[in-house]
Amino acid sequence: MLNLIKKVPLAVAFIMITTASNVSAHNVCSYPCPCVSQIEEVEEIDEDSAEASEFAQEVLELVNIEREKAGVRPLKLSDDLTELANIRAEEIVEVFSHTRPDGRSCFSILSGINYRTCAENIAAGSATPEKVVEQWMNSAGHRANILNGAYRYLGVGYTYDEDAMYEHYWVQLFIG
Fold first, then answer.
1. What is the largest CA-CA distance in the chain?
2. Is the peptide bond before 9 cis (omega within 30 degrees of 0)?
3. CA pair distance 161, 164, nearest whole angstrom
4. Is the peptide bond before 32 cis (omega within 30 degrees of 0)?
5. DSSP assignment letter at 142
6. What share of the chain is helix, strand, coil (3-state, %, to 5)?
7. How many whole angstroms separate alpha carbon 143 and alpha carbon 152?
């Protein structure tokens, strides 16, 4: 654990000590909201690749399974939101927060998008769509966003950075 704490910035050290995990997740409903998981090793994925696109589709399918269980209509994957979520995924490598690196709210990325309601889920450390959805579903605030019937569209962003603290970074953008 001491080696882990040396790698972790002070802002997340308490989360790491209390959860004994190498993963962190946040949403706008509950900040900070750690989810317990382990960093997994996978091949590097270029977010513009077909594989990253498959990750977005797989997250959508897993989210819609959870929504179906809860009696909530399925979400539709939005290419525009996915593009924005990929930008946010790159940003959270730099600053793991709902505040963008330039100090603006995460929702400023939605300028030019028409919506009535929106949410963002972020996570780090999970290497697969299955693990990140499990991570989010084990957090009350993230789960609430996923199961919120007011949302109609989803964007999923993912980036991998082997030099970053958590390596795997995920963003969900919801609009309704």
1. 47
2. no
3. 5
4. yes
5. H
6. 40, 20, 40
7. 15
Burial of 121 (0-12, 13-18, 19+ CB in 10 A): buried
| 98, containing H or E segment | none
Give the tokens for residue 74.
Answer: 């399925």
DSSP assignments along 47-88, one per residue = TTSHHHHHHHHHHHHHHHHHHHHTT-PPPEE-HHHHHHHHHH
Q: How far is CA 91 from the centre of its chain?
A: 12
- Contact predicate 127/42, CB 8 Å: yes
68-112: pLDDT as tens digits: 999 999 999 999 999 999 999 999 999 999 999 999 999 999 999
Which helix (H) or strand (E) is 158 found in, with range? Answer: strand 153-160
Query: Given the structure tokens 């929702």, which residue do they identify?
Result: 107
- One DSSP character per residue, 99-112 reads B-TTS-BGGGGGTT
Per-residue pLDDT reduced to its tens digit, 15-31? 221 222 333 444 443 33
Spatial separation of the C-alpha atoms in residues 109 and 2, rounded to whole Å: 37
